Amino acid sequence: MPRLIALLSLLIIGLSIWQLEGDRAGLTITPVTVEGGTPATLYLRNGAGAAPVVVIAHGFAGSRQLMDPFALTLAEAGYVVASFDFEGHGRNPRPMSGDVTTIDGTTRLLMDETARVARAALAHPRADGRLVYLGHSMASDIIVRQALEAPRADAVVAISMFSEAVTADAPRNLLVIAGEWEAMLAEEALRALRLTDPQARAGDSVGDPAQGTGRRAVIAPKVEHVGVLYSATALHAARDWLDASFGRDSSGPVAQRGGWIAALLLATVALAWPLARALPAGAGPVPPPLSAKRVLVAALAPALLVPLALAPFEIRVLPVLVADYLVLHLGLYGLMTLALLWHWGQFQGQFPARIWWVGAAVALFGIAVLGGVIDRYVASFLPHSGRMVIIAGLALGAVPFLLADGILTQGGKARLWRVVLARVAFLASLGLAVALNFEALFFLLIILPVIVLFFLLFGTMSGWVGRRTGLPAAGGLGLGLVLAWALGVTFPMFDAGAF
């Protein structure tokens, strides 16, 4: 059975990569030099003529890879496409800065960066002088505002938009796209449309794109804030809107990558099972059984006490938004849980010599193999040198936390209610922390889906390792390093003193 699963996983991985790489066929994808050093990529269809430039901007905690469906689709349609990493994001070594609460602070700096990318792309020989801005989430407000300034845009595609800068006639040729399952932003899309025509409905086009007065709102069915980036409806709408704005007639398929990416990720995770089965089997430690009451205390006491203990303090050490707090939350949470488990005799036989190389194997698979897949097809996962200190700092909290989680859940051997309780209690603890200090910690809400996905993917793999080797702490050790890495490359770097 392990060999069959390994073979099927490798076949699905190979097929998925073949399909995903096929979206790049016929395109030239190269770096483009931008003033200030912003990492940017230029996408050109081989043999195409002069065309408008499309500058693509990602959302908060995103990167260029996340916007590939639009970049590849529009490049295939013949447009000159430039996609980039905002400061503080992805491969960009320059941290975000300025006041995030004012238009003249961080927003202005990100607008200036977007303009620099636009000027670099407009200088390409294939650019015909016309310009489009396309942005998602946080970037939607950036591109709407930048479209009104030099270099001005001839069309704008705002995805999951919220912007107070939209008026009845500005920006020119505005297409707003939202997912059906992001209800507030879908309403915002309709509001922007009805500034021009109060009777308009989703899907209606008002004004004349050929004259620069067009406006449309599209609601992509059955997708949410990230899924909208992979929606065929959204991709077709963006391409068709630009064709209408510039009198072009593009054809061909759009880059429908979501299903293949999901298949690739699931197959890569599935490959971990036969690899785990190849590890030396072990019976593992047999600590004294924990009563249900003690399990409840170990799961719930840190969840309640840690946010209460940290609430009075303002913590600023790492140059990353809320990472300082998260290190302490994870570390204190883990140490408190470990202390309770040690007091109840749960450390018995947990740390034999082989735990270190098993833990290293878990970390290597999570970071190099699964992380490599994520970096190529989903979002930036390979850090620049400036993020290594951040990853090391996060490991000081993540490793104790996941060591405690591994021992408490017995490396996947514990009953399901015990595993679910441990993970839900931690998520609730982060929620309580945000509630106690919303203004300072609301960015933690951004990572909650990352934590849930982490538990689903990496927690499953850790369980396979724990059940095979009998070493609950090994999975915790390896996963602690993976979690530190994942958070360290996801959080935007921020330097408030640089503005």
TrEMBL record:
Q: Which Pfam families does this chain map to?
A: Hydrolase_4
Keyword terms, alphabetized: Aminopeptidase, Hydrolase, Membrane, Protease, Transmembrane, Transmembrane helix
Please give the Gene3D superfamilies that the UniProt record associates with this protein.
Answer: alpha/beta hydrolase
Report TM segments. 325-343, 355-374, 386-404, 416-434, 440-459, 471-494
**GO molecular function, one example?**
aminopeptidase activity
Which first-to-last residue range defines the signal peptide? none
- Domain (Serine aminopeptidase S33) spans 53-162
Under which name does UniProt file this protein?
Serine aminopeptidase S33 family
Which lineage do the record's taxonomy fields give for this organism? Answer: Bacteria, Pseudomonadati, Pseudomonadota, Alphaproteobacteria, Rhodobacterales
